């Protein structure tokens, strides 16, 4: 009899795990109540990137005259039309996932489930499913601080945005992290007056400081106001909108408020104690490098573990879990080498250590940078904002980190992912001949700049 794996949750960790387990010969039952594809497809990655694509086209149309293209008449923005396109993409991809699962003969139960023990999942609609192993992939949800008056319309999380029937004239975004920054650029492109309110001095503070500083500059160029350096103490709903109060700073008013202050694991309804599964203070399920929980027959992957809350990390973790369950000699994931793809304007792609993180670890580094404006391709595209930065070990020359900001940065960064994964030196990266004219030349120029040898940079 094949090993029976029950997968709880159908997001990037869950459905990928189910497909991989079936591929390796397991019998698979997938229990999911929130829609195949999870938050990533229905409320996160895909909807926001579809909106980013619409906004990018809108920005290009606004700048068409620079390219000798005349557009007669006004360029109108239809929020309902943009949402219709979002839902078209969601439905297409959800149908694709369903087709893949059907093709693999995976049983899908559209229901909520929780643990009865280490082998059994109880279904909300009645009955139970028993298997050899349970893999929990229930994802995460936006944090909703109790002090804020969420109502689903005026004060919202990112989950609520796709239910708006219209756009606000002004928006206060609470939080300065990656999700907050992505939405700031989206709504600014759509004509909304945006203010980002954060605790830190720079937006996206988890990034390399040089990148965050350029991001702040680009925010200002887009008309986005950034008010950092103090926590938000309250959001007050008024007849004409909201008032946001920061400690020791002037009040900020807007028509609506979007709260982006992190995500928390979806574990509170799983009855983890029934199987002896340990969790942390935020509800994250504690796992080892092979995604095993404290119960030998229960594994967990993705956001519910609270480790690396990224869709592609979730999928990779799910595959490791499945391979360990089925004795296929999995390799543990080096989470320090998982890339980030950030869809601000311009995009940001990064992997490995920032200069600041290397310093905190006591590693002496040498860094090289190169501005996108120095590239012929960037000039030809009219996309000159941004930079590339390489962080290298000063003693060994090994590439420790790469940070790219500019057009298509989320694609370009992957050559650095491979370089870091393979332990390449910065000299090897610099010697790799890059085609001209391309945006990827920024990476080799930054690598050459580690030695002060970037030919197209004014020293």
Write the topology of this structure.
Elements: E1 4-8, H1 14-23, E2 27-31, H2 38-42, H3 45-62, H4 79-103, E3 107-109, E4 113-115, E5 120-123, E6 128-130, E7 133-136, E8 140-142, E9 155-156, E10 170-174, H5 178-189, E11 193-197, H6 209-221, E12 225-227, E13 232-238, E14 241-246, E15 252-254, E16 256-259, E17 263-265, E18 298-300, H7 311-325, E19 340-342, E20 347-352, H8 355-360, E21 365-371, H9 376-381, E22 387-393, E23 399-406, H10 409-412, H11 414-421, H12 426-431, H13 441-449
Parallel strand pairs: 1-2, 1-7, 2-3, 7-18, 9-16, 10-11, 10-16, 11-12
Antiparallel strand pairs: 4-5, 5-6, 8-17, 13-14, 14-15, 19-20, 20-23, 21-22, 22-23
What does this molecule look like?
It is a single chain. 30% of the residues lie in helices and 22% in strands. A hairpin with a 4-residue loop joins strand 19 (340-342) and strand 20 (347-352). It is of the alpha/beta class. The strands form six sheets. A five-stranded parallel β-sheet has the order 3-2-1-7-18, with helices on one face. The longest helix is centred in the N-terminal third of the chain and has 25 residues, at 79-103. The protein is globular. The chain has three domains: 4-141 and 264-335, FAD/NAD(P)-binding domain (3-Layer(bba) Sandwich), CATH 3.50.50.60; 155-261, FAD/NAD(P)-binding domain; 346-449, FAD/NAD-linked reductase, C-terminal dimerisation domain (Enolase-like, domain 1). The model has no long low-confidence stretch (mean pLDDT 96).
């Amino acid at each position: 009899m094949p090993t029976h794996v029950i997968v709880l949750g159908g997001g990037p960790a869950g459905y990928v795990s189910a497909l991989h387990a079936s591929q390796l010969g397991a019998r698979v039952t997938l229990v999911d109540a929130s829609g195949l594809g999870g938050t990533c497809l229905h409320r996160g990655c895909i909807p926001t990137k579809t909106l980013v694509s619409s906004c990018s086209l809108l920005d290009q149309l606004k700048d068409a005259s620079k390219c000798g293209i005349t557009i007669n008449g006004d360029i109108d923005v239809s929020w309902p039309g943009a949402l219709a396109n979002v839902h078209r993409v969601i439905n297409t991809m959800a149908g694709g996932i369903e087709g893949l699962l059907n093709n693999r003969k995976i049983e899908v139960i559209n229901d909520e489930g929780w643990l009865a023990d280490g082998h059994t999942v109880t279904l909300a609609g009645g009955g139970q499913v028993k298997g050899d192993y349970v893999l929990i992939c229930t994802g995460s949800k936006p944090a909703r601080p109790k002090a804020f008056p969420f109502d689903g319309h005026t004060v919202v999380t990112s989950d609520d945005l796709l239910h708006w029937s219209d756009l606000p004239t002004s928006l206060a975004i609470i939080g300065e992290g990656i999700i907050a920054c992505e939405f700031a650029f989206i709504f600014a492109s759509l004509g909304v007056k945006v203010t980002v309110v954060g605790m830190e001095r720079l937006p996206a503070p988890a990034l390399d400081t040089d990148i965050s500083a350029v991001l702040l500059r680009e925010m200002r160029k887009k008309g986005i106001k950034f008010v950092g350096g103090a926590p938000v103490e309250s959001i007050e709903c008024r007849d004409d909108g909201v008032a946001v109060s920061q400690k020791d700073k002037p009040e900020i008013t807007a028509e609506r408020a979007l709260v982006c202050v992190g995500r928390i694991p979806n574990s509170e309804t799983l009855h983890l104690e029934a199987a002896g599964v340990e969790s942390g203070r935020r509800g994250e399920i504690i796992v080892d490098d092979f995604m095993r929980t404290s119960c030998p027959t229960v594994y967990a992957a993705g956001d519910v573990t609270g480790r690396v809350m990224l869709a592609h990390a979730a999928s990779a973790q799910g595959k490791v879990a499945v391979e360990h369950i089925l004795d296929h000699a999995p390799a543990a994931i080096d989470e320090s080498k998982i890339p980030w793809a950030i869809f601000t304007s311009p995009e940001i792609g990064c992997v490995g250590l920032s200069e600041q993180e290397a310093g905190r670890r006591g590693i002496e580094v040498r860094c090289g940078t190169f501005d996108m404006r120095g590239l012929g391709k960037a000039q030809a595209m009219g996309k000159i904002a941004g930079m590339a930065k390489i962080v290298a070990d000063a003693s060994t020359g090994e590439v420790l980190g790469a940070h790219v900001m500019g057009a298509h940065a989320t694609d370009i960064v992957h050559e650095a992912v491979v370089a870091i994964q393979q332990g390449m030196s910065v000299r090897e990266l610099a010697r790799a001949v890059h085609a001209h004219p391309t945006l990827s030349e920024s990476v080799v120029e930054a690598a050459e700049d580690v030695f002060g040898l970037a030919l197209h940079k004014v020293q």
